[in-house]
Q: What sequence folds into this?
């Protein structure tokens, strides 16, 4: 595969990497949690047999967004289109503690994507929000129940650790003016378990990748990644490009394509036993809003998108530029970001200008 350039997210205190090369105009950018969301759609489509396993219902944790956020929310789309927020939790607790994902305490939204499904549900757009983006956090309730005042210039991924997923939803809605119809979150253990349940996923890279930070040691060529290796792969940044966190999305995009291809190749829809195993691993690490917090609701939502072809999904990044006060952080680039959010609010076409970001990432294999 060609050596491509794509931006990505950075850990707190890590330089975002100004001065990097521009990515190809149409290069897809995405975070690893869209992989999980698409896997849910593909496995659930058609009402397959594993939905009969009622025990999986108890795996899913639910969040009532209306109750948690209140009435201070944007209006719903004027069409039948849908907006879904997909979060990836980088918690180091519970099952995640054994995954060697780092020593950072607490949990952050390691990945955040707004998935817009226009009216007709024949296509979709996934917008990745860099986790180093400086945002204004609205008034929220902390995890301990304490009322938090609004705060400016906070890192986007810190909102989750301080106040939880409902506050992330509220933050995205207020920064974009876009009403989020649904929310889905999955953690490290769920991602690794999904890949292992499938027997691994093959990926091809043009050159060796050695990243002592993520633990990835990969030779050029095609390798069937285990769940642990896949987690290292989508978290790698030091072994590619200029080492910036924005560049990691290129590997995540590569893995997305490989995962979806493997799902199709294995025909999970025709294998109830494997589908159940995949679903069990997935739902055990899944948190969703009250509209998607059961297998029945997930299946209904998935069936409503039967006409959606993941191969046609366009994945872009929220247009950002390096913060003039702190080059290790990024802020929304204007007017591109406003044009992007306006297109989602009106269920319209995203203009090409809104797909361009002044901040660029490093090359990926």
A:
């Amino acid at each position: 595969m060609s050596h491509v350039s794509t931006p990505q997210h950075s850990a707190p205190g890590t330089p975002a990497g100004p001065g990097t090369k521009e990515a190809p105009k149409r290069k897809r950018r995405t975070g690893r949690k869209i992989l999980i969301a698409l896997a849910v759609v593909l496995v659930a489509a058609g009402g397959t047999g594993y939905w009969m396993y009622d025990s999986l219902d108890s795996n899913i944790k639910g969040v009532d967004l209306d109750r948690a956020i209140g009435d201070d929310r944007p209006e719903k789309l004027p069409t039948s289109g849908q907006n879904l927020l997909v979060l990836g939790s980088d918690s180091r607790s519970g099952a995640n503690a054994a995954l060697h994902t780092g020593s950072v305490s607490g949990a952050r939204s390691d990945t955040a994507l707004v998935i817009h499904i226009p009216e007709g549900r024949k296509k979709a757009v996934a917008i990745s929000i860099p986790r180093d983006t400086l945002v204004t956090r609205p008034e929220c309730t902390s995890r301990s129940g304490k009322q938090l005042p609004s705060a400016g210039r906070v890192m986007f991924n810190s909102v989750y650790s301080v106040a939880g997923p409902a506050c992330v939803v509220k933050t995205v809605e207020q920064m974009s003016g876009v009403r989020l119809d649904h929310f889905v979150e999955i953690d490290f253990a769920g991602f690794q378990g999904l890949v292992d349940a499938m027997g691994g996923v093959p990926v091809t890279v043009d050159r060796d990748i050695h990243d002592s930070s993520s633990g990835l040691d990969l030779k050029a060529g095609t390798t069937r990644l285990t769940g642990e290796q896949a987690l290292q792969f989508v978290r790698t940044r030091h072994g590619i490009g200029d080492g910036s966190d924005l560049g990691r999305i290129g590997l995540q995009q590569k893995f997305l394509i490989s995962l979806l291809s493997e799902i199709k190749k294995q025909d999970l829809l025709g294998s109830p036993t494997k589908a159940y195993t995949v679903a069990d691993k997935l739902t055990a690490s899944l948190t969703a809003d009250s509209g998607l917090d059961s297998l029945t609701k997930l299946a209904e939502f998935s069936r409503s998108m039967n006409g959606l072809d993941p191969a046609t999904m366009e994945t872009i990044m929220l247009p950002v530029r390096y913060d003039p006060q702190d080059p290790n952080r990024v802020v929304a680039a204007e007017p591109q970001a406003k044009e992007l959010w306006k297109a989602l609010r009106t269920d319209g076409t995203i203009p090409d200008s809104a797909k361009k970001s002044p901040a660029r990432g490093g090359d990926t294999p």
The radius of gyration is 19 Å. Residues 249-266 form the longest helix (18 residues).
